[in-house]
Amino acid sequence: MLLTKRTAGATAFGLLAGLALAVLYFRLDPAHYPFPRCPVYWLTGLHCPGCGTQRALHALLHGHVGQAAGFNLLAAVLAPVVGLGLLEEARGYLAGTSRRLTLLYSPWLSWGIAAMAVVFCILRNLPGPLGAWLAP
Predict the structure, then answer these.
(1) 10-residue block means of pLDDT along the chain (136 residues)?
(2) What is the pLDDT at residue 125?
(3) How many domains does the chain have?
């Protein structure tokens, strides 16, 4: 598959933007710098499935898996899935295979992640030890 100027430029921009974000989250700890805060938590006081993901990403980039799981267990569990999916997407793109054959486009994965996010959101907002353990 030949890359057109448009797709090559978009791919290069996406890769550079992702690399820039990874460097930003590696260098700066979101707990100590003014990164965006969760609007759901700010408005309702409830932890959404994404609360703590920025700090979890920072910890994962430094190799602290346990600390990342403490910030956001769902993000720590799904980070390898997303990484493998992106590698598979890049391999498929370079090989010229259909995107619909990649892991990230499978319906069972999408529905499974959505179900996990809903259950995770409910469990982390429950009173008691389970909610306290899953809260960031």
Answers:
(1) 63 79 91 88 93 93 94 93 80 73 79 95 94 92
(2) 95
(3) 1
* 3-state percent breakdown (helix, strand, coil) of the chain, nearest 5: 70, 0, 30
How far is it, in rounded angstroms, from Cα 29 to Cα 59?
9
Domain holding 110, by residue range, is 5-134
pLDDT value at position 8? 65
> CA-to-CA distance for 50 and 72, rounded, in angstroms?
7
d(C-alpha 14, C-alpha 11), whole Å: 5
Q: How far apart are CA 61 and CA 68, in angstroms?
A: 9
Inter-residue contact 48 to 38 (CB < 8 Å): yes
Cβ 104 vs Cβ 89: under 8 Å: yes
